[in-house]
Amino acid sequence: xxxxxxxxxxxxxxxxxxxxxxxxxxxxxxxxxxxxxxxxxxxxxxxxxxxxxxxxxxxxxxxxxxxxxxxxxxxxxxxxxxxxxxxxxxxxxxxxxxxxxxxxxxxxxxxxxxxxxxxxxxxxxxxxxxxxxxxxxxxxxxxxxxxxxxxxxxxxxxxxxxxxxxxxxxxxxxxxxxxxxx
Length: 182
Fold this sequence. Notes:
Distance between the termini: 45 Å
Oligomer: single chain
CATH class of the largest domain: Mainly Alpha
Strand content: under 5%
Structural class: mainly alpha
Shape: globular
CATH architecture of the largest domain: Orthogonal Bundle
CATH superfamily of the largest domain: RNA polymerase sigma factor, region 2, helix turn helix motif
Number of domains: 2
């Protein structure tokens, strides 16, 4: 399996399959980021589309200064945040009316390496906290859900029925809301 950086290099060399592989590889990442936001006047699918545009922009503009994964995540998140901010400010009544994506936009990450490190440390602390509050099944189910897996994918991976998986997620969400929303 080729690394993300190797796929970017191949894409720049004219290998169209390389970009497809990256888009597929990062689809769950885009879903995970998009799931955290709400778009006024839009749908969840609009946010996923914005995230995929952010990913494509990352592929185009990546210069190899850091790992591609962190850079792609920042580009995805920035693109989705921009769409959300624009929708809240009334700048976009619908994303379909926005200007088309331009490959030469050259979007750059607004996150510094220090901010990315702090984000990863905060995520690690978050997952340790929820692991202590949840059963093993609930923890695995919620982690997969956060990563963007569908209910069917979670149920299959955990070797549980759809109903058992749904119940585990409901219990996990209930327990976590008691911890984080006070």
